[in-house]
Amino acid sequence: MKIRRRSIAAALCVCLVLWAHAAYASVSAPDPPGGIQPRWTTLSSIALSMTYSGGQIHWGGSISGNSSVVSVKAIYTLEKQNSNGAYSFVGDWSFSGTNAWLDSSGDKTAPLGTYRLTVAVTATTRTGTVENTSNSLVKTFS
Description:
single chain; alpha+beta; Immunoglobulin-like; 2 domains; three-stranded antiparallel beta sheet; 1 helix; 7 strands; 19% helix; 56% strand; flat
């Protein structure tokens, strides 16, 4: 009887150790190179940039789709952060193209501060599949 109890206790300890190891491994697994990447089905990348010079914000965006993409539409929105942390509308721009990529850029006269550039993207494939997604970039100019 004592041996049976010890065997059950040992088996439970082994199970507990294995469970704890599996739980730790699933929580502590490292991010893939470059951090967590978005999972798009029709898009390859969305890259945003912002610079400031001469009292203007210069922004740019580059959107790439896979070979099945036949059109890309993008709406860019620029917002300025207020003293309370909220963002206020500064301007927006709309672009579209009939290729698997779309490069866009623009300028806006604006004071120094923290700005958020957001792009809302719609990509359409030759089979009619539509993917909607967005990306943002926040930068402070002082």
